[in-house]
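> run fold Alpha-hydroxy-acid oxidizing protein
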Amino acid sequence: MDSTDSTSTARTNATSPGPGRARQDTIYRSGVAGIRPKVPTDAAGLERAARRAMSRKAWAYVNGAAGEGRTRDNNREAFDRYRIVPRMAHGVKQRDLSTTILGQELTSPVLLAPVGAGALVHPDSDLMIARAAARADVPYVVSNQGSSPLEEIASTYRNARHTTESSRNAGHWFQLYWSTDETLVDSLIARAEDSGAGALVVTLDTTVLGWRPQDLNLGSLPFSRGQGIAQYTSDHRFLQIVRRRLRDRTSGGTAGVRVTPAAVASLFSIARHHPGPTLRNLLAPEPRASVETFLDIYSNPGLDWDMLATLRHRTHLPVVVKGVLHPDDAERAFEAGADAVVVSNHGGRQVDGAVASLDALVEIRERLGDGPTVLLDSGVRTGRDVAVAVALGADAVLLGRPHLYGLAVAGERGVQEVVENVLAELDLTMALTGASDIASLRRTELRRECPCGTPVSVPPPR
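> ok
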């Protein structure tokens, strides 16, 4: 770039209205012609629209929670207890939302969280989310329970990224569920490295599946119908395990399965989601054996800190430990060699009545101090939520259900609009509270409402 281009770019940046004003302008200008946003700009409206758009089984899985939904509700109630104290006349003409996580530049403190079995919403969910994330310029944490192979998702993200004006973000990360087969763990790690992933996100809180009545009452588990296991059926080591089990006759049979219309539909679903022609898959034992093998080995209830510590010599990627809620566990994660932790209760999907992630964040940041990298997942719905999380000590947040809601409502464009709306509100919240960048946002004053209703000042975490 020559000096003329540099001057022009600087002048453009100096007069940029920021993502908040830009998003408002887009919506209001369309409104002049009577065009309203297809994707609701409020969290409650988005959720209602997504429910109308999803099938019953898809809604049960995506929106469902453990037990009576107490943890999911706790996550939202925790955010609702905090009050922002705006500061005036700070001359915040421009806001810089960028930050650095694990040495990687991000254009904002927002990443898209891994969400499994997205094929319930759309067959190409992961590819559509990847394109939308790239165009919105946010990293995408690819799910280990994805509906497309990691390599295809990573390629889709990179190709879409080349079409954007700004491409400073850290790209894709990869989520890892620790299998009972260690050679499969190594294979998934190697694929993450080869795909160019920016980090390995090891999920701790799903060593067994939580009690989820919404799925149970429908007798619905997407993985049993071949959905959400593409990372496995595209893995050479996993397929070796499947074929060995077939030789040993420990998988692939249909004994004990009643022949009903639903069973036939499930068989077609398994065949359709397995690599290769559907007709061939209907006649072959491998697709059914793959589902059974996945259900047997995808997670490891015996996972412990010593096993996690082995990652330091098994990968060169930054290791992010997801699913931490107790300060002691956060310390153990870093002692085991983690580069960052994600404070998360899996969106309330695992333990009913667990502590809210936001409340756990406050305790963990207080214990760890300023240095370690801490991200927040679970309960984030709006730009205001992002601002509160950062003010309470999060270096960045993961946005989960909302982006899948956007996918259900308006496809790829819906995901992008959800991200744009969140970033727009974050930008405007910063402007209206006197925060010019993420560092000053961390100093935003908050007040926490006690159960008695009396606000209590919360000192900035750093």
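The radius of gyration is 22 Å.
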